[in-house]
Amino acid sequence: MLRASSILLLASALPLAAAGQAAPTTVARPRAAAVVTGRLTDAATGEPLPGANVVFPDLKQGTATDADGRFSFANLPRGRFTVQITSLGYNTISQLVDTGNGQPLDFKLTPAATEIGQVVVTGVSQATELRRSPVPTTVVDRTRLNQTSATNVIDAIAHTPGISQITTGAAISKPVVRGLGYNRVVTLNNGARQEGQQWGDEHGIELDEFSIDRAEIIKGPGSLLYGSDAMAGVINFLSPDPIAEGRITGQATANYQTNNRQQGYSLMNAGNINGLNWLVRGTRKVAGDYRNRYDGRVFNSGFNEWDANGYVGLNKSWGYSHLTFSSFNQNVGLIEGGRDSLTGRFLRDVAVGGQVESAVVGDNGSGYTLQVPRQRINHLRFGVDNSFIIGQKGGRLAMQVNYQQNLRREFGNALAPDTPDLYFQLRTVDYALRYFLPEMSGWNLAVGTSGLHQQNRNLGAEFLIPAYNLSEGGVFGVLKKSFGGLDLSGGLRYDVRRIRAQSLYLDADEQPVPAGTAGAETKFPGFTSNFNNYSGSLGAAYNLSDRLTVKANISRGFRAPNIAELGSNGVHEGTIRYEVGQPGLKAETSLQLDAGVSYSSEHVRFSVDAFENSIDGYIFSRRVLNAAGQDSLVSTGPDIGLFNYVQGWARLLGGEATLDFHPHPLDWLHFENSFSMVRARQLGVSEDQQFLPFIPADRLQSELRGNFRRQGKRLTNTYVRFQLEQTFAQNRYFAAFDTETATPAYTLFNAGAGTDVADSKGRTLFSVFVTANNLFDVAYQSHLSRLKYADVNYTTGRRGVFNMGRTVSVKVVVPLAFK
C-alpha cells in the first residue's frame, strides 16, 4: 500500500519538472499572464508607502512597494483572487480583485492604533478575511513570535487565549485547544498534515521553531477539511511567503536563553528569479538542564537538534508547483525525577560491574551531555504542493502529496546506552486534492478528498504498541456565500478509517516467536478496527458595521481511537506509567456550538468567544487500583503505576475574552488583556469522576506595551512590554483512582524590549529582542505538566518536578540582501 502511494508521490511531482518548459497541458491550455500594477498611499496624507507587502495568498506570489509606493506583478494567473496588503502601523487591507481586467490598483491605508486589521487566514479552505470567517480562528504572526521566549514551537504559541500545552520538560510540548489535546489536534506543516506518533504524551511536534512565519489556530472541529483527529482544532504552521520577483535575500538568527543555556542558530536563503522560487533553512539548537528554585538543576532535561527545511518550485501564469522538504533531528533527555532520600539530589542509572545501580547526580551546571533515558527523533519529509488554474475565470485545482518517515528511539539501559529499547518506524503518505470553483456572485464552492496511508513497525527489543497499518480517506464539500455584510459558510465530509494491528508473541526471554509456540506470552493479540463517520459545519459572520462583528457556528466532529488507546501494552517511559489499551473502544463524536462578538475601533478592541462542546465516547486514561484500593504496580525494575483507557460522556464549556486599550492621544501605549477558561465534566458518573483529566486552569494575562515607531531614525520599531500571567488554581481535577491531584495557583511576571537598528539610509541592519520570563523566579507546577507526577522528594516533601525558573532570552535577527 505504501509502495503504491509512493508511486503516486512521484507521479504528482511530474508537473514540477515539466513546468519549467511549459504550462501543464493536462490541466489548462497555455494562457497569457496577467500584469497587475498599483500604488499604496497614506489615506490621511496622500504620501506614498514604501516597503509595504502585497501578497496573493492563494497564488503564493508577493512583492513590496518601491520608494514611490508602487508595485507590479508581471506573471499572475487571470481570475478573481484575494490580495492582502500589510504595512507596519497601518490597517491591513484584504480585497478580492480581478487580475485580468488590466486596471491599476489604488489602495489607501489608514493608520492602525489597534494593530489588528483585516488579517487573512488560509487554513479554513482558501484565503479568507479573518473577521468574515465564522470559525473561531487566531493568528500568531512573526512579530509576536520574535517577541516571545520559547523552548519549542508549541511553547511559542501556548500563551494564545484558548491554547495550552501538555509538557514533559523544556523540549516536549503537545498543543491543547480549549481543553482537548493529544491527537484531537491536527498539526499542519504549510497546510499538510504532520504525522509523527501524535498518540504519545511525551512526543513533541517535529517542526523547526525558526522556520515558522506565522501560526493559524482554528479553535473547534476542523474535521471538515482534515478528517479524523481534527476534532479539537487545527494548528497550521506556515513558512514565509515567496519574495518578490528578481530578489535574493537571506536571514541569520541567533538566540541565547540563560536558564538552560539554550543556544539557537538559524540561517535562511530565499530567492525568486523568473518565477523560480526557493527557500532553504538550516537550524541548530542545544540546551542543557533547566533549573528552578525548588529542584535546582533538573537532571537530564536538556536537548539538542539539527534541522533543515525549505522548498523549490515555479510560480507561473498557470499557477505554482513546489517541491518541499524538511528534516528534523532531535535528541532529548527524559526526566524520571527520582531523588536520593538523604540529600534530595536527583538519581541516575550507572553501569557498575555489569549491573545497573543508582548514583547521586553531581553538579551538572555547565554541560550539555544527555543521559539515559533519552529519545532520538528523526523526521524526514518530502512533498509536492501544486496549484493549477483551471479555465479563464480563475478556478483552481490544489494538490498536495507528502511522504514522511518518523524514527523514534528510546534509550533506557545504562549497560547499553546506545542500543534502543523502544524503536518505532512510522511511514506515512498523505494526500489532499481540492478544487476551488471560480467565485460567482459571492458564491465560493470547494470540493475535494484527503487521506493517508500509514505503516508503523517495532524495531526495538521492547514493545509498547503493536505494529500496525492504517488507511483513511474522506470526501468533502465547502460552500461560502456573501450577502453584503453577511457571510455564510458550511460543508459536509464523510470519512472511512481502517486500522489493522499485528499480533505479537514472546517467549520466556521476551523475544518474538511465531503464533502457536508452546509457552509463548501474548503481548498483542492483533485486531482490525473500522471506523466511518461524517462531520459538518454551518456558520455565519455578520458585520453590523466596520467595527462590530457577530459570529455563530455549529459543527460536528469525530475522532477514531489511536493505536495506543486501542492496543498499547507496555511501559511508557516519558509518562512514567504502564499503559493498557482497549481494542473495543468506539469513535468519539462531538457537537460544538460557537458564538462570538468583536468590536474594534481606533482606540479599543473587545471580543468574546464562547463555546459548548458535547462529546460522546470521550476517551481518557485513568489509574488502575487493586482490590485494596491501592495503586496497581507493575514490576519493570522499579515498580510503575498501571493505567488503562476508558470512555465516557463529556461536556466542555468555556471561551476567551480580550480587551485592549490604546488611549488617545497616547497611541503608542497599549494595555492588552485576555481571559481563558474551560469547564469540563463527565456526565452520569460519581462525584469523584465528574471532572476530566488534564484540563487547563483558568488564565488571565495582562500586558502593558509601549510601541515607539520612528521611521527613518537609527532605532525604529522600538517596543517595551510588561506582562502579568495569572494562572488560577485547578481544583476541578479527575480525583478517581488517584489519577490526578489539585494544582495551586501561581503568578508570573514577564518583560521584554526590542528594536530595529538601521543605517543612515533607513535600512535595517539587525533587530534585537530581549525577553525575561518568570522575573521573580517563582517555583510552580503547571496542571498540564507530566513531571508533576514524578517521584516525591522526601527531603522536602514535594512531589514531582517543577517548571522552569527565571530565564532571560536574547535574540538577534540579521536580514541579508544579495540582490
Write up what this structure looks like.
By secondary structure, this protein is mainly β. Helix content is 4%, strand content 53%. The strands form 10 sheets. It has a 22-stranded antiparallel barrel. Strands 10-15-16-13-14 form a 5-stranded mixed sheet. A 4-stranded antiparallel sheet has the order 3-2-5-6, with no helix packed on it. A hairpin with a 4-residue loop joins strand 37 and strand 38.
Task: Characterize this entry briefly.
The chain has 5 helices and 50 strands.
How big is the Rg? 27 Å
Which word captures the global form?
A: globular
Instruction: Measure the end-to-end span.
Output: 46 Å
SS summary, helix count: 5
Structural class by helix and strand composition? mainly beta
Mean pLDDT value: 89
How much helix, percentage-wise, in residues?
under 10%
Could you list the spans in which at least 5 consecutive residues all have pLDDT below 50?
Answer: 1-29
Could you state the oligomeric state of the chains shown?
A: single chain
Largest sheet: 22 strands, antiparallel, barrel
How many beta-strand segments?
50
In terms of DSSP E residues, the strand content is: over 45%
State the main characteristics:
single chain; 4% helix; 5 helices; 53% strand; disordered N terminus; 22-stranded antiparallel beta barrel; 819 residues; mainly beta; 5-stranded mixed β-sheet
